[in-house]
């Protein structure tokens, strides 16, 4: 488990879920996300080794992907959903460098991490909450550490509509927990994070989907 792999096929990740008891809809979502979420793009910015937090880890697909790529990563997945954490724990039981905890990541301690990943979770919280916890994460991550935020960018209006519609269906159906949808312009997020001592770059990450998925890579300056 010590060496670094450059790629893990989606099918290799999905097979960890094959014998996990879960509903047909859960299984469908796991397969779709594993094949369409372009985890390899995020993984390229995650340190080869160190303590990594997957905040809002859901079923644990990204956490498992990152753990398989490098055994020198210690991956911690946190999610508020008991069902999704149960599935993630069952799927990862034979992967030693990944673990999962059922908790709101807003209440979770962030000290000592080398990388924090927030994938499609920030938009469930009002802007003031986003700002408060962005500042908290930026201050507490290790010098030289990386914060990766993938979310929908309001600056892309047509794609944003499709993202909003998808998220509305997911939250109203109860499949995804969320009290509201608060999508931001990435220019605003970039300004906040840069003001806290980070080098920031922003790039599209929607691939073949109609959504406005965008990735922000923030690297904390070393003192």
Structure description:
The protein has a 7-stranded mixed sheet, with helices on both faces. It is an alpha/beta fold and 223 residues long. The model has no long low-confidence stretch (mean pLDDT 92). It has a single domain, classed as Vaccinia Virus protein VP39 (Rossmann fold, 3-Layer(aba) Sandwich), CATH 3.40.50. The radius of gyration is 16 Å and the shape is globular. The chain is built from 8 helices and 7 strands. β6 (198-204) and β7 (213-220) form a beta hairpin.
List keywords for this structure.
single chain; 223 residues; alpha/beta; Rossmann fold; seven-stranded mixed beta sheet
Strand tally is 7
Largest sheet: 7 strands, mixed
In the CATH hierarchy, the architecture is 3-Layer(aba) Sandwich
| Rg over CA atoms | 16 Å
- Give the strand content: 15-25%
What's the pLDDT, averaged over the residues?
92
What is the first-to-last residue Cα distance? Answer: 32 Å
**Helix fraction by DSSP (H/I, runs of at least 4):** 25-40%
In DSSP terms (H or I, runs of 4 or more residues), the helix count works out at 8
Strand ordering within the main sheet: 3-2-1-4-5-7-6
Broad shape: globular
Query: What is CATH's topology name?
Result: Rossmann fold
Give the SSE string.
HHHEHEHEEHEHHEE
Contiguous uncertain segments of 5+ residues: none
Structural class of the secondary elements?
alpha/beta
Q: CATH homologous superfamily?
A: Vaccinia Virus protein VP39
